[in-house]
Design a protein that fits this description.
Layout (H helix, E strand, L loop, with lengths): L1 E3 L11 H11 L4 H14 L15 H13 L5 E5 L7 H16 L3 E5 L3 H7 L3 E5 L2 E6 L7
Parallel strand pairs: 1-2, 2-3
Antiparallel strand pairs: 4-5
Length: 146
Amino acid sequence: MGIVFQDFRLIPTMSVFDNVAFAMHVVGAENRKIRKDVSTVLSMVGLGNKARSMPNQLSGGEQQRVGLARALVNRPSLIIADEPTGNVDPNMSYEIVSKLTEINKQGTTVLMVTHDHNLVRDFQHRVIMLEEGRIVADNAAGGGNI
């Protein structure tokens, strides 16, 4: 399982590369595999040239893409994205959801929590609405009348 947090949760004293590699170190991956896979996933999210940067040198959108890369690097079967667009501008929001959609098309289940009704309508995926912890709607066909 990979998790994308709303507030990025990057380790400020670690480079972009090391923030992503951390997820692989935790599961005991070999250094050679870490070097290869981290570089691959950073390129995939458009940050191949930022590997040596520190989190405070990145924009909010770039920090969120580092969080996405960290969630992806171990090739999880499930990604949970908790308001992944909450701290980025509208254009970056669409870029992030587009990337999550690509990941989903490749076979990874993506569970995303959002309050952004425009994203829900525009991307037309299954929508489950909750109120006070209870399911009040489940639209398996897409965004519908949300």
